Amino acid sequence: MKLLIICFQFFNKLNTDFQNYKRFCLDKKKLCCFYSKVSVILFMAKMMYILLIVMIASCTHKDEDEKYMELTGDWISRFDGSKLMITKEETFAVQIKDGSSVTIEGTLWHNKGNVYFLNSPDAVRCKGDTGVYQFVLVGGNLEFSVVKDKCKSRIEHLTNIWVRKSTLQ
Question: Are 145 and 133 in contact (CB under 8 A)?
Fold first, then answer.
């Protein structure tokens, strides 16, 4: 949205500059040559093309947000029965079923198709390390793939296949 506001302000300034140029030509009783009018029109066409690209990019961002919202909810690991809860408030909790009954909580956010996991400071595992993942939703299954992560435990648990809890019950 901020990008659209900036573009709108830029086009307003461009229009003002063009109006001032026309006034200058009329005030000085000079003829503006055909070439400069054509170049102004071509410049305006290029700016409209840039605006179109910006608008398409802003729509893509909305799609990314919608895709992220599909992650929210409760998930069960098909591998070991661990539970993953993702909230709309960009927090997560993983209840690990490895005999330790450990629950790891933290924050997550998304940017450019990636999801970032950061365990809370009091977490038992992977304190302060951010894990970067991509995800796909296929046939009700959630799959994460590692982009970058130093935490072996998080990689081991997140890269399993997850199924939405509501579909299991």
Answer: yes
The pLDDT of residue 5: 64
pLDDT of residue 21: 59
Q: Of 126, 141, 67, give the one whose Cα is nearest residue 96.
A: 126
CB-based contact 3:58 (threshold 8 Å): yes
What is d(CA 102, CA 82) in angstroms, rounded to the nearest whole number?
Answer: 10
DSSP 92: E
Q: How far apart are CA 116 and CA 147, in angstroms?
A: 10
Tell me what percent of the chain is helix, strand and coil, each rounded to the nearest 5.
45, 30, 25
90, 72 contact by CB (below 8 A): no
Helix intervals (H) in 70-117 = none
Q: Which residues contact 68 (CB under 8 A, 6 or more apart)?
A: 110, 115
Residue ranges for the chain with pLDDT beneath 70: 1-40, 42, 51-64, 167-169
**In sequence order, what are the beta bridge partners of 137?**
142
pTM value? 0.59
Taking phi over 0 as left and psi of -120 to 50 as alpha, with beta for the rest, 34 belongs to alpha
Crossing angle of helices 2-27 and 34-69, rounded to 10°:
170
Q: Report the alpha-carbon distance of residue 125 to residue 151 in Å, rounded.
A: 8
At 145 the three-state DSSP class reads strand
